[in-house]
Design brief:
By secondary structure, the protein is mainly alpha-helical. The chain is 74% helix and 0% strand. The chain has 9 helices and no strands. The longest helix has 33 residues, at 57-89.
Length: 253
């Protein structure tokens, strides 16, 4: 199937779905469930059946997903302007922040679109050095991001102080492990235990730090990843089978 035929098929399907939902209002809930079931089933089958037409499903649907994502970005931008514009017009609480958001959005959007027509080095994408879009990004977003991460360090330190209070066995274990890792990643950890003899090399703080990171920490990470994977599988099956319907934007669940 050529890309043109695929695009035409998608457009016809969308138009047919919109028309059917207008004629039969009940299809507004049923049709998305059917589409989700069909697409989800095809994508699952493409993993286990590497033959036509399933082997092409990933590329075809990925292209369609990119088109939907582009449309969603446009809708998201319009929704952002609508929500913040309403707060600015009625002078809501802290409306100045909404004004900053709208101005920043319009300026960055305008720079990204206008850079297509600028001559010389100002023309190009955000990744290209010397362009207007890149200059605005580096001069505004990067410093703000660094500032936010700098402030986050103080919140992490405060949360660590509260969490590391040895009130329970679990908190004590967390405190001891965190202290060993923190000290073991610095030269201080080596100088504190370098005098231990060869049979006790395991108890050198850098070695203990590496053991905690490589054994208990790695085991916990794998357990969390397995749990996340099982949760994704469970949620995906619920969505494909129509059990989970919150994505429809209705009260049905």
């Amino acid at each position: 199937m050529t890309p043109g035929m695929f695009a035409l098929m998608i457009v016809l399907i969308v138009l047919a779905g919109v028309g059917a939902s207008i004629v039969v209002p009940s299809l507004r809930r049923t049709l998305p469930l059917v589409v989700t079931f069909v697409v989800g089933s095809v994508m699952v089958a493409s993993v286990f059946i590497p033959h036509a037409p399933f082997d092409e499903a990933d590329d075809k649907f990925s292209s369609f997903f990119n088109i939907i994502a582009a449309i969603a970005f446009v809708l998201g931008g319009l929704n952002l302007l609508k929500i913040h514009g309403e707060k600015i017009s009625r002078r809501a609480h802290h409306w100045q922040y909404n004004l900053v958001t709208v101005v920043a959005f319009v300026v960055m959007l305008g720079a990204g679109l206008y850079s297509l027509f600028l001559p010389g080095t100002w023309q190009g994408t955000v990744q290209s050095r010397g362009t207007l879009f890149n200059w605005l990004y580096q001069a505004t977003f990067s410093p703000l991001q660094s500032t936010m991460f700098s402030l986050l360090a103080f919140f992490v330190a405060s949360a660590s102080y509260r969490a590391f209070r040895a009130k329970t066995k679990e908190a004590t274990l967390l405190l001891v492990s965190a202290t060993i890792i923190l000290v073991g990643r610095t030269p201080l950890g080596y100088y504190l235990t370098f005098w231990l003899p060869e049979p006790l090399q395991f108890f050198h703080i850098p070695n203990l730090s590496g053991w905690i990171l490589g054994i208990p920490n790695l085991a916990g990470q794998r357990a969390i990843l397995i749990g996340i994977a099982l949760g994704i599988i469970s949620t995906s099956l619920k969505i494909i089978l129509g059990i989970e319907r919150s994505y429809l934007g209705t009260r049905d669940s």
